[in-house]
Design goal:
Blueprint lengths: L11 H13 L2 H8 L3 H15 L4 E3 L4 E3 L1 H24 L4 E7 L6 H9 L3 E7 L5 H6 L5 E5 L12 E16 L19 E4 L4 H11 L4 E5 L5 H6 L5 E4 L8 E4 L6 E9 L4 H19 L3 H9 L1 H8 L3
Parallel strand pairs: 3-4, 3-5, 7-8
Antiparallel strand pairs: 1-2, 5-11, 6-9, 6-10, 6-11
């Protein structure tokens, strides 16, 4: 049964997923390319087929091939992509200064990627301490930022600033691999009530709030970004909160907590920023975050064991 065109609402990421499967003739390879779990990728393809009312792919245990409607759709999508690139080049023609700030060094490549995609832009970036990036957009110092809300608080954007979610990133705990609790797959926060903690100054209020919610006041014995954090943790002298995407250093492990603590990572832009640039950078940062997340074997195992949790955290469905 064909789709009612008046009700079709196309999702470009669904089309991208379809193109990747068609290109590699494999759901597994396409999922790796898009930094998605295979169930999430399959959901996108099924949603596209359901919306169009046709079967786009022939699936077997050994290979994936395009159906006749799939071949036709692929030709149209390839044409759309080419037209889109021509349109972007046309509307962004001119020497435009675009500044972007990020709180995560690995994502600074968003500037180079934007320069490559929009060759007529002059893109600059700056690494910012969390909490200082968003006000810079409202004050006119930056066109866009990647930032993070404090735990338990949603940042209210300044006037003329809009916000889009990149990820709701879980907060875990890092401890020595020799620690008695390291053998647990998930750790009760209250079980760490007698531990010494080490935190960066900007994270202390968040740690206090999390622990008080769990029924104890943490012993924050070390407050510094410059102390040998890993050495202290390896020697079982301290534990620390850590973003789930960060791989554990040698001699340490990271574990999820029994309470669901998430940090809202966002992309914010001035309302006057061209939407083509906003969409490109937002998608680039979301993909970059998924790529970073997969670097941590513990987090990868966590999200692959709970595909729906991955989709919820990373806004992929």
């Amino acid at each position: 049964m064909s789709a009612d065109m008046s009700e079709v609402q196309m999702d470009w990421l669904d089309l991208t997923a379809f193109c990747e499967v068609a290109k590699h003739a494999s759901f597994t390879k396409a999922a790796e390319r898009m930094h998605l779990t295979q169930p999430v990728l399959s959901t996108r393809i099924r949603r596209l087929e359901r919306m169009l009312g046709v079967e786009l792919l022939h699936r077997s245990t050994r290979r994936v091939t395009l159906s006749q409607p799939g071949h036709r759709l692929l030709r149209h999508v390839q044409g759309l992509r080419q037209s889109w690139h021509h349109a972007v080049a046309d509307v962004t023609r001119g020497d435009i200064r675009f500044t972007v700030a990020t709180t995560i060094p690995e994502l600074c490549s968003v500037a180079a990627a934007t320069n490559h995609h929009f060759p007529h832009l002059r893109v600059e970036y700056e690494l910012r301490i969390p909490g200082t990036a968003l006000p810079a957009v409202g004050a006119g110092g930056f066109d866009a930022v990647q930032g993070a809300d404090p735990l338990f608080h949603n940042v209210v954007p300044p006037a003329q600033v809009e916000i889009g979610t990149i990820v709701h990133e879980p907060v875990w705990v890092m401890l020595s691999e020799q620690h008695p609790l390291a053998a647990h797959s998930r750790i009760r926060l209250h079980a760490l009530s007698d531990e010494a903690w080490i935190e960066a100054p900007e994270s202390i209020d968040e740690l206090m709030a999390i622990c008080i919610e769990a029924g104890f006041v943490p012993d924050i014995r070390y407050r510094s970004r410059t102390l040998p954090v890993v050495d202290l943790i390896q020697a079982c002298n301290a534990v620390s909160l850590i973003q789930a995407r960060v791989p554990a250093p040698a001699g340490c492990v990271t574990r999820p907590l029994d309470i669901d603590v998430r940090r809202h990572i966002f992309y914010a832009w001035h309302s006057g920023t061209p939407q083509s640039i906003v969409r490109f950078q937002h998608d680039f940062l979301r993909t970059g975050y998924r790529r970073l997340a997969f670097r941590n074997p513990a987090y990868r195992q966590f999200i692959e064991s709970e595909p729906q949790r991955f989709a919820e955290l990373h806004n992929t469905v």
